[in-house]
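Write out the 3D structure for:
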Amino acid sequence: MSRTFLITGVSSGLGQAFAREALSAGDVVVGTVRGPEQVELFEALAPGRAVGRLLDVTDDRAVATVVDDVERTVGPVDVLISNAGYGLEGTVEETSIEDARRQFDVNVFGSVAVIKAVLPHMRRRRGGHIFAVSSMAGLTALPGVAFYGASKFAMEGIAASLAQEVAGFGIHVTSLALGSFRTDWAGRSMVRAPRTVADYDEVFGPIRAARQAKDGRQAGDPARAARAVLQVLDSDKPPVHLVLGSDAVRLVEQGQRQLADDLAAWSELSASTDFRTDD
């Protein structure tokens, strides 16, 4: 039996990989894009089963309108993959407040708007699966992408809370903590804050240069990530956090060890802040 997917940001990269894999499995995919010409290109992937919709996820009213229209004209959304987003690179001091706000508007509030628009429909049907596309930078802090990472930390937390809130309705929630995949994320899609403070040359210069040099040669295969998502869909107990990519596994494990070490080293001080029973 075919399912209906709603996937945001399908014009390229992982969004398109998710869409292609679902279409190959015989499912119906509604994909959102930003330009009219991209609608035709997407629908040509599988005429009749690939349905394009124009959408800016930062337009809350448009998000609700598109989701309601999809439910009415295409069919009940069984699977949401909230994928639309982009990367922002730069040190905290060198990144403008305007760029930081825009990062959250798209990566957090845009994603939340789509999730909130789909939820009432899934809740009434008592079923569905929501995927929030996150990053390894949302589970372990990485230098040079603080605001991107913060946006993904936010989505990891929102997804984990939401999973507990909707479990009783038969709705599953999974955040996808992605490593470095061979997409345009680190290339033309990346917004890079201008370098303005020479003091950061030593620590950040090599990070930016390495990321640019790696663009197009990342280890992660988007098609394999898409197949992993479909495999999770078939699981009776899907994960709330799914880490994808060998580099992501390594860096997240490293971050978790650092947290565990801090907890152990400072546990006595941590516990000392409670009220004393003999006070």
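The chain has a mean pLDDT of 94.
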